[in-house]
Specification:
The chain has about 150 residues and is mainly α. It is built from seven helices and no strands. α1 (about 5-25) packs antiparallel against α2 (about 30-50) and α2 crosses α4 (about 80-85). The relative contact order is 0.10.
Length: about 150
């Protein structure tokens, strides 16, 4: 995918996330624009670095690393970025991304159908195992820090 296409997809997802943000949070459309623009820019730079840097490191690693560095407490970029991004709801970001994933899966529905019933069983076991594992980890950590 060309970087111009990647930027287009990021902008469409960002706009749809802003619309969902208005519905799902107390923040208005205009209030959330700076945070969304930062997230789009961060994703774009990370994807670009994933393509141009040697070593085959995925773009998501660059996104996470740059985001962590820019929001590290004590840096002058941390407070304004955190304030802007806090006006964008996480669940609202997931809406267009999950819709895109659904469309991508439907494109390969014939391959899915050929996988037979075993793929459904394996998927259910993986989902349940991931959920239970996440719940156990959350329970242990929350108990350790005294939140529950």
């Amino acid at each position: 995918m060309k970087m111009s296409e990647t930027l287009g997809v990021l902008l469409v997802c960002g706009f749809l996330s802003l619309v969902a943000n208005v519905v799902g949070t107390k923040f208005g459309f205009v209030e959330a624009i700076p945070g969304m623009l930062f997230l789009i820019a961060l994703a774009f730079v990370g994807i670009w670095l994933g393509k141009v840097m040697p070593g085959g490191i995925p773009g998501v690693a660059y996104v996470v690393t740059i985001g962590c560095i820019l929001t590290y407490p004590g840096l002058p970029t941390a407070a304004p970025i955190t304030a802007a991004v806090s006006k964008v709801g996480f669940l609202q970001l997931c809406t267009p991304i999950l819709a895109y994933a659904g469309v991508a899966i439907c494109k390969d529905l014939d391959v899915f159908a050929e996988s037979s019933w075993r793929i459904v069983l394996v998927s259910c076991v993986v989902f349940i195992g991931t959920y239970i594992g996440s719940a156990i980890i959350a329970q242990v950590i929350l108990k350790a820090i005294g939140q529950i």
